[in-house]
Amino acid sequence: MSDWTPDDLGHGYEKRTIALGEDPDGEGTIEATLVRHTPPDPVRAAVLYVHGFSDYFFQDEMARFYTERGFAFYALDLRKCGRSRRPGQTGHYVSDLAMYDRELDEALAIVRRETGDKPVLMSGHSTGGLIIPLWLDRMNRRPGGTKGAGVVGVVLNSPWFDLQGKSWMRTVGTRVIAAVARFRPKDMINLPATDAYGSSLHVSGHGEWEFNTAFKPLNGFPVSYGWLTAIRRGHAQLHRGLDIGVPSLVLRSTRSRPARSWSPDVDEADVVLDVKQIARWSGCLGDAVTVVPVDKARHDVFISKKEPREAAYAVVDTWLRATGLIGS
């Protein structure tokens, strides 16, 4: 475990590595990276954010939103992602989503030690929005359950709850992918190239956001057979029904719009996931689930255009007040 050191984000950010030892997937020594923002005084609660695929934490506006409301803000770059990826490692590759429990458990332990066992809110985007509920479901089966571990709620931002695209990809296509993964798990699937989403975000294209394109490529990381098989197993677990043990807020766009290249319409829809699938499977989380569609939101609702982004933050603020995590 390392000490806290300055993070490249600046603005009062620090990071520390979480050593994870040898990679079960055979790609050398692995680690995760925990980032924190200068905490408020006093600390009312804490939030731990987990990114999605082809992503990492860079959203200063999100950290400031929570800090202004009394939350100590932390974000985790998972193994082989963002700050945590090392030369020779396959970006975002993992053969079983349950492997992430190691860094999630350790990150949660650090947050609780540093904040004096304050209640912790989990926040996940896209693939992170699948990883977190699966982890919490396993945690909820331990003595004391999720609440005993200090977690009081979850905010999921366009969580990846099913495989988008044609229906055959969710049946025979998934079986074919799993069969290839048995023998060539790190071979990449030949998917159509697209930078529609990435170019809608970054200042070098049509967006307003600065981020490291080595950590978050505009055309995304390639998708391997083994990784997608792990995702599909996670989807199947979710579809059978989870019990995460705490209330959840699910945010999504009001519509999807598949696209390979940018157009103005890309800025006002989810061009990555099928929002109808998010709506369909949200009830599988267990406990109380609140689903709120955000009009004209992008895939990541918190890096949408100004109006839908502000609407999304207003929804979170209202939900936090309703749960009692912040005062009225």
UniProtKB/TrEMBL annotation:
<keyword id="KW-0378">Hydrolase</keyword>
<dbReference type="InterPro" id="IPR029058">
    <property type="entry name" value="AB_hydrolase_fold"/>
</dbReference>
<dbReference type="GO" id="GO:0016787">
    <property type="term" value="F:hydrolase activity"/>
</dbReference>
<dbReference type="InterPro" id="IPR051044">
    <property type="entry name" value="MAG_DAG_Lipase"/>
</dbReference>
<feature type="domain" description="Serine aminopeptidase S33">
    <location>
        <begin position="42"/>
        <end position="253"/>
    </location>
</feature>
<dbReference type="Pfam" id="PF12146">
    <property type="entry name" value="Hydrolase_4"/>
</dbReference>
<dbReference type="InterPro" id="IPR022742">
    <property type="entry name" value="Hydrolase_4"/>
</dbReference>
<protein>
    <submittedName>
        <fullName>Alpha/beta hydrolase</fullName>
    </submittedName>
</protein>
